[in-house]
Design a protein that fits this description.
By secondary structure, the protein is of the alpha/beta class. The protein has 20 helices and 30 strands. The chain binds 5'-O-[(S)-butoxy(hydroxy)phosphoryl]adenosine. 5'-O-[(S)-butoxy(hydroxy)phosphoryl]adenosine (WT7) binds next to α12, β20, β24 and β25.
Length: 690
């Protein structure tokens, strides 16, 4: 396992096999030159940029990004780093995010489409919201939030919505008033949404009756009772629930509303038709939103992003890395419920005055030609999706992009490592060799893109995301904190040596966790007030080649990246333990051809269980879907006689992951129960067939 690379996880002895250790180590690939046309048209085509963003220009270089925004009051200080790792950017400045994303475009672009909503059913017409229309809708909803619910700046609102136009409208209405939104991915279970709502004591919960996904209607409102129950159990039920409807004239759910708590959005909005609500200027470091994400411990943590630094950073990177221009029709085929959608479907494209596409459904519905039909019809120029979607579209319809007149200039990929074969298909077949492919590495915590090639300036290298984005300084550190030299061929922990404006401010309600999880590993002196002593530990293993290009191997912690979505093994395991028969559970990553990784779940039962293993398997799957959602559905549930354990009783997940991935388990002779390893291996291999 260690082979050519040092163990990046530093978890030798802890018994875990991380994603990065089952990574496929691709060979170094050939470079491809950036498309010639971009050298003439790109936002960022001047190599002088490298100097402007050189380490010596830190932190002033980021003023270039802040200058893309409209400020009510200009900042006095670029960076306040007095209290690392809690940084404040553009201190003294104030602005409003909705004003930047909507109002400021009205003078020149009121008629330009801001959001094009593409329903999943192909016969249903698009819904186009021009900037003028968006302005009207955001104000009406802001009036409801302020006047009907009495929400005031700083209050939290949990939004459990799928990909419908009401989602960005609600986010912007919150931003207009200084309310802190927390969007929970629509595919998460009601229970998961309820716990997140309670964690930040949301006063309002926003949901809808249903939506289309994979050719079927999903009854989304059916999740509401379990959300409310979970929030109540945690001691913070929301006061009110706002319910949208997918269609004005019928309901997609039989769920009844509670008149003392729930409000029909259409009724409330009608009362505020034509309302004017001025955007409220917010201090640069006021929180804009929370985004819950999984980490090493059981409970998801609320990453808190700031107003000024975040918006400046995502706008700047969308301009330089995605090369977005106001004339672009941009389609990011991700979900707004994840950070990719927040930053690069909603906030950055709208701040730049571009047209952003919001697609309701799954990529290959009703067939794998769908994305290319939409792109041709809407004239999409910049496109972004995940390696999982690329692999799927390639497998189901390798020739389909050729059937269409596609005009892509930049093709972005995000969320997981992309294998060179899939990269090349994206480049050749989707981009026709005329578009730049940018493989963008970043995280929920980082707000925006941190490593990527610059489309007009850098050569592309399939399988590597590229160098640090402007002003970003990635490095690889070994377990002792020594920097691993570029080109050494050794992997280690990916860190960022300097802060940047998109970095989250804190973990909601638990600032100490920010320090522990992201900075403690490489900080030697907690009292140091010099940011150089606080490298950001990303939780990914990576290598940096001699050319400075970063190649990501995967997570080193207890996180499994499923199709670009982050799942905590601890969360999956605690869901399994809600099944009464289950005594012990372990979730491990297993490599999957389409989704990158999937969780494999091992459970050992309490003595005395007399039913069938199939029965337990089904209950475990149901428990995971209830407490997390369908996205966490395991690849397999294995009911095993016992877990492989150390003499001190710790479950050795490394051994289970080795078995799941049909790999060597390493030396198991020192285990408390070495014989179960062979038993489990036999059980798994038998099932896999010859
Ligand atoms: C983790 C972050 C970035 C928004 C979507 C995911 C993995 C992300 C890449 C990439 C290889 C990638 C990392 C990272 N990841 N982008 N281009 N190449 N791996 O956000 O849910 O916070 O997950 O996704 O492992 O740590 P997230």
């Amino acid at each position: 396992m260690a082979g050519r690379y040092a163990s990046p996880g530093g978890r030798e002895g802890s018994g875990d096999l991380s994603e990065s250790e089952i990574a496929v180590h691709w060979a170094e690939e050939e470079y491809l030159a950036p498309p010639a046309e971009l050298a003439r048209t790109a936002n960022l085509r001047d190599p002088g940029l490298l100097e402007r963003f050189a380490p010596s220009a830190f932190p002033g270089c980021f003023e270039e990004y802040a200058a893309l925004l409209t400020w009510r009051r200009r900042w006095d200080q670029v960076l306040d780093a007095q209290r690392p790792p809690f940084y404040r950017w553009f201190v003294g400045g104030s602005l409003n995010v909705a004003e930047n994303c909507v109002d400021r475009h009205l003078a020149t672009a009121a008629e330009r489409p801001a959001i094009v909503f593409v329903p999943e059913p192909e016969g249903e017409p698009d819904v186009v919201l021009t900037y003028g229309e968006l302005h009207r809708r955001v104000q009406e909803l802001a009036a409801v939030l302020r006047d009907d619910f009495g929400l005031v700046a700083g209050d939290r609102v949990t939004i459990h919505l799928p990909m419908v136009p009401e989602l960005p409208v609600t986010m912007l209405a919150c931003a207009r008033l200084g309310l802190v939104h927390s969007v929970v991915f629509g595919g998460f279970s009601g229970e998961a949404a309820g716990h997140r709502s309670a964690d930040c004591a949301s006063r309002l919960f926003v949901t809808t009756d249903g939506y289309w996904r994979g050719g079927r209607v999903v009854d989304h409102l059916a999740n509401l009772p379990s959300s409310m129950e979970a929030a109540r159990a945690d001691g913070h039920p929301p006061e009110r629930v706002l319910v949208f409807r997918r269609y004005p004239d019928r309901s997609l759910s039989a769920e009844r509303l509670d008149p003392s708590r729930d409000v029909e959005a259409s009724v409330a909005l009608a009362r505020h038709a034509g309302a004017r609500v001025e955007p409220r200027a917010q201090p640069s470091d006021a929180p804009l939103f929370l985004m819950y994400t999984s980490g090493t411990t059981g409970r998801p943590k609320g990453c808190q992003h700031a107003t000024g630094g975040y918006l400046a950073y995502v706008t700047g990177t969308a301009r330089s890395i995605l090369d977005l221009h106001p004339e672009d029709v941009y389609w990011c085929l991700a979900d707004i419920g994840w950070i990719t959608g927040h930053s690069y479907i909603v906030y950055a494209p709208l701040a730049l005055g571009a047209t952003t596409v919001v697609y309701e459904g799954v990529p290959a519905q009703p067939d794998p030609g769908r994305p290319w039909r939409v792109a041709e019809r809407l004239g999409v120029t910049v496109f972004q999706t995940s390696p999982t979607a690329i692999r799927l579209l390639r497998r189901l319809g390798p020739e389909r992009p050729r059937e269409h007149r596609l005009r892509f200039r930049v093709l972005a990929t995000v969320g997981e490592p992309i294998e060179p074969e899939a990269w090349r298909w994206y480049y050749r077949e989707v981009g026709r060799g005329r578009a730049a492919v940018v493989d963008t590495w970043w995280q929920t915590e980082t707000g925006g893109i941190l490593c990527s090639t610059k489309p007009a300036l850098d050569r592309m290298k399939p399988g590597s995301c590229g160098p640090g984005a402007p002003g970003i300084r990635p490095a690889i550190l070994d377990e002792d904190g020594q920097e691993v030299p570029h080109g050494s061929g050794r992997a280690g922990n990916l860190v960022l040596l300097a802060p940047w404006p998109g970095l989250m401010q804190t973990i909601w309600g638990d600032p100490d966790r920010l320090v522990r999880q992201y900075f403690a590993k490489y900080n030697r002196d907690r009292s140091s007030t010099d940011w150089r002593d606080w490298p950001y530990f990303a939780g990914d293993a990576a290598l940096i080649a001699a050319d400075g290009y970063v190649r990501i191997l995967g997570r080193v912690d207890d996180v499994i990246n499923v199709a670009g979505h982050r799942l905590g093994t601890k969360e999956i395991e605690s869901a399994c333990l809600t099944v009464p028969e289950v005594a012990e559970a372990a979730a491990v990553p297993v490599a999957d051809e389409l989704k990158g990784r999937l969780p494999d779940v091992y459970v050992a039962l309490r003595p005395g269980w007399a039913g069938s293993p199939q029965e337990v398997e089904a209950r475990v799957v149901r428990a995971i879907e209830t407490s997390i959602g369908k996205i966490a559905r395991p690849h397999r549930v294995w009911v095993v006689p016992d877990m492989p354990k150390t003499r001190s009783g710790k479950i050795l997940r490394r051994v289970l992951a080795g078995i799941s991935n049909h790999r060597d388990t390493g030396d198991v002779t020192t285990l408390a129960n070495p014989e179960v390893v062979a038993q489990i291996r036999e059980q798994v291999d038998r099932d896999r067939g010859p």
